[in-house]
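Tutorial handout. Part one gives the primary structure; part two gives the three-dimensional structure as tokens.
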Amino acid sequence: MTRGNQRDKAREKNLKDMAGQKKKNNQSGTEFQKTKEEQAAIMREKQQKAEAKKAEGGAETKKK
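Part two.
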């Protein structure tokens, strides 16, 4: 019954290969740079909002 072992090994190898494919980046260099810059702009905007909120009412925090 060696065939069952072959199937298990092939299945494990295939799962490992499929997991590796999900992690790969499918964007070109310029696309990747563009998304990176967009994400950085969003984070800067969030930081500015947080700093403005702190400045106007630093003592007012939501605690439950």
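Part three, for discussion. The mean pLDDT is 83. Residues 13 and 23 are 16 Å apart (CA to CA).
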